[in-house]
Amino acid sequence: QVQVVESGGGLVQPGDTLTLSCAASGRSLSNYAMGWFRQAPGKERELIAVGTSDGGTYSVESRFTVSRDNAKNTVNLEMYNLKPEDTAVYYCAANVLGTQVSADPQSYAYWGQGTQVSVSS
User: Fold this and answer.
1) pLDDT in tens, 11-22
2) Share in percent of the chain as helix, strand, coil (round to 5)
């Protein structure tokens, strides 16, 4: 079993760049597909980006970039040109199917507690 913990959230201004980090313990992340999701109040949890075990990446917008450092057992999400509508709790999640790119939260067995990102002037 793998445990993941997100960090790096906070209050930023529109147009800022922010990097979130997901640190894992218990097992190596190298065999998992790692997804970043977010959930705004009153909305469903939605996929932002996925980094697969074979090095593939997917993101819903070019403003979001996922990267993984298997040596450090971490996965990062870099977010550019942040907008107020990006305000949400951001979650890191691990999918045991390492090469799967899935937008379904049910595909991910392990989740962190989330980190709040607020974008406001």
Assistant:
1) 999 999 999 999
2) 5, 50, 45
Give me the amino acid identity at 56.
G
Rounded Cα–Cα distance for residues 67 and 90 (Å): 16
pLDDT tens per residue, range 35-87: 999 999 999 999 999 999 999 999 999 999 999 998 899 999 999 999 999 99
Number of H helices, E strands in the chain: 0, 11
Q: How many Cα atoms within 13 Å fall on the side-chain side of residue 56?
A: 13
The DSSP H or E segment spanning 18 is: strand 18-25
CA–CA distance, 57 with 82 (Å, rounded to integer): 20
